[in-house]
Design goal:
By secondary structure, the protein is an alpha+beta fold. It folds into two domains: 34 residues; 53 residues, Alpha-Beta Plaits (2-Layer Sandwich), CATH 3.30.70. Helices cover 44% and strands 17% of the residues. The protein contains three helices and three strands, in the order αβαββα. Strands 1-3-2 form a three-stranded antiparallel beta sheet. A hairpin with a 2-residue loop joins strand 2 and strand 3. The longest helix has 24 residues. It is rod-shaped. The model has no long low-confidence stretch (mean pLDDT 86).
Length: 106
Amino acid sequence: MLGGIDNGLFLKSFAGFVVVAFFALVLRWAFSSGHSLVARPGKRGKADEYGLFVPVASPKNFIEGEILRQKLLAVGIKANLTQTLEGPRLMVFKKDLGVARATLDQ
């Protein structure tokens, strides 16, 4: 006991301030805006703006596109059905383009 002050009570009161400051920082980080970890919904683009994917077919609707995609998956070709600005497109990797066209032409 220094100068008539209870040191244990004095230190406990500072520990409370530290805990409240820590929670304030955590809550400020958790509820801040501008850097979310949740992915934003994708936006549509032209058929040639999809990186390594190239369009192999232009189905009239998503049902027809899904049937074609399942046909490619059965052969072992990875395919993606996406909505572009020009309508639905069936996309494959550039290296699989020839095999995919041959499969869909059968």
